[in-house]
Hints:
- The structure holds 2 protein chains of 2 kinds.
- Chain A is mostly helical.
- Chain A is 75% helix and 0% strand.
- Chain A has helices at 4-36, 46-52, 55-61, 67-75, 84-96, 104-125, 127-151, 156-189, 196-206, 210-217, 223-232, 240-252, 258-272, 283-307.
- The two termini of chain A are 16 Å apart.
- Helix content of chain B is 28%, strand content 23%.
- In chain B, the strands form 6 sheets. In chain B, strands 3-22-21-18-17 form a 5-stranded mixed β-sheet. In chain B, strands 5-4-19-20 form a 4-stranded antiparallel β-sheet.
- Chain B contains 14 helices and 22 strands.
- The chains are: A mainly alpha, B alpha+beta.
- At the A-B interface, helix 1 of A face helix 9, strand 7, strand 9 and strand 10 of B.
Amino acid sequence: MMLSRVAERVYWFARYLExxxxxxxxxxxxxxxxxxxxxxxxxxxxxxxxxxxxxxxYERRFSVKDEKRVVRFLLEDTSNLGSLMSxxxxxxxxxxxxxxxxxxxxxxxxxxxxxxxxENMQQGLNRRHRTEFLGDIVKTxxxxxxxxxxxxxxxxxxxxxxxxxxxxxxxxxxxxxxxGARMSGDCIEHDSVHVTDAVWSSVLGTLNAIMPFRRTMKVxxxxxxxxRFLLEDTLFPRAVTACLLDMRASAxxxxxxxxxxxxxxxxxxxxxxxxxxxxxLVALPAHIDELQRQLGGLHNVINxxxxxxx
Amino acid sequence: MxxxxxxxxxxIDWSQYPKGDFFDEMISDKGNPRAASRRIxxxxxxxxxxxxxSRRVAADRTVRDMGVSFxxxxxxxxxxxxxxxxxxxxxxxxxxxKRTEEGLKQRVKALNMFINxxxxxxxxxxxxxxxxxxxxxxxxxxxxxVGVNPPRGVWAHICGCDLVxxxxxxxxxxxxxxxxxSGVAYMLENREIxxxxxxxxxxxxxxxxxxxxxxxxxxxxxxxxxxxxxxPVIVILTPGIFNSAYFEHAxxxxxxxxxxxxxxxxxxxxxxxxxxxxxxxxxxxxxxxRRIDDLFLDPEAFNPDSVLGAAGLMRAWKAGxxxxxxxxxxGVADDKVVYAYVPKMIEYYLGEKAILPNVETYxxxxxxxxxxxxxxxxxxxxxxxxxSGGYGMLVGPHASEKDHKTFRKLVQExxxxxxxxxxxxxxxxxxxxxxxxVEPRHLxxxxxxxxxxxxxxxxxxxxxxxxxxxxxxxNSSQGGGSKDTWIVAQGGKKS
Lengths: 310, 495
């Protein structure tokens, strides 16, 4: 038996931890991409804000869209609920009262993590040390996940971790794809089609998917196949379908998991319907948009099934 | 690690123990160990200063590794502090303890009869044994509880009675904590720590075990379940992580194998039953060991702004659908004025003489006694009737003129709310103050009494000790520490 509140906090712990890692990854890849691209591509730092899903908040507060503001907003600004620091704070809040169901050392690691990030934030804001700093953040997230993966019983709490983490990963993959489509569109508009390969390479790079892509798709890197791989592959853990399959397996292990299983199946079908990946201006964004909407719906089903009974 | 420039440090020299004018728990006036402590004193003497120091360091590390902590509220934030633990156990002989235990059972039985009387016939007031102003201005009397019949008439299932020894070496009851007494987790953890760092002492001393407490607590909790099922659903209700006793709540939940719930996890149905929200849906709850105060328990019945409890708990409890431990309203006996009448209650309800004496207590509400208090305030300890944790009190001999004046005014303005007691010659016991060094420090003892189908008392209890020289304040929130408490079979040796 597991309390709904504890289940919910474990789920959100996993989601926020994944967000921390995603944000670090995203900023890192953008930083290197933007240095590689010619100035006239029309691709700007603001795409990063769009990819993180917090552009409404950003535009409400700032009119200038330069690197300094964007990076600060996404890394350390705690009034931005989507910033890395805000997510890290939520990681800690959610683990505080669930320490008894997670490995004991994870609480210590999270504490050390938060101290490390607050003390070294300046390194992330300056370009010179940013890569190293963000790399350390990614490593720490992986260390925490590794500890949990290695030492946790595959009990109910485990399955809520999987649900939270997989849903967040799928969401991040969709966001990254969306950003890729948008940048490709920008390239086309600015007539610099020659840089779209660099864009898709950065999309795959954000998700550590370049090698798996090459070994699976056996074609040279291009937008259409990148999107197909990141959406439909069943074996690459950050591909949307693979995330959904993990969620289905975990839902099946939990009491009353039927509704969630059904919702996941519906979503898998929706992914398979995908078509027109080469059309980055209309068809692909529309498909991604629909998937994001349904992923939000899947969260609602999880919420209603387990977190708000009675 | 440095050992002080290579200087050999020596073992404890008990002949140099700076015993004061107080009763010392371990060392007699002649400088010899008391009977129950003989083995432990001699064992400690055999440890070199360095060895003792390394055990002390090991104890600190054990506290940290086991994550034994308590939370203090300071400068607007909550700080988790390591639990302060002194290596040398506090020893009490079994024969003396048996008698003390009887006294505690007797006391808690009478207190429960009193509370039950308060919420039913109020016969003790009608018979003029206790004045009825006690009820009229009681902060902890709950009119909502009148007429309720908890199982077996027990209201205070868990009591933490504070005992002190005076100069005569006798145990006195200092106060009865009947609301949500805390500290028992530290009693259990203290034993774990001392087993780890002083294992050899457990081979040669006949120390009675304490670790059956969770078992006893669980059966007591099960005994108040309204549903007579083999495995009633029991939960511990915590106000949450910011509470100073959260460590204990989590510890007990783990030890008992029950869920640690917050108010928002509970819901009272239209059938007046309590349910908790689990991932399998709503599950009926039979017994709630609540660690939050009455007034925060149920926004429907008490403080409407409170988010700590759950709406309808009182309804469910009155309908007899859930056991609440301690019962709401039990705190009516947790009043220092009521305390003064406990020996009379014992005679009234049980027809027996009190086994454990009270500390002499002056009731400021009585004009004659008040005059005495006002005239002698610098010699007395003045306490508010309904506070705990050592807050809002005056220790006359240690306070300034200005404080005396302030308290004289407080007493005159609200005499019902104050009692005074002579400054006790609180007993002392050795505490390690440096490598190979021991000094006497004042201490008290909090045994826990459980009353359900049967009444049981912990073996000893939680010993709290003032760490500052001369200080009488033992509360951990005020800089006190603790010791493992041993009840030993006198002269007994394990065969």
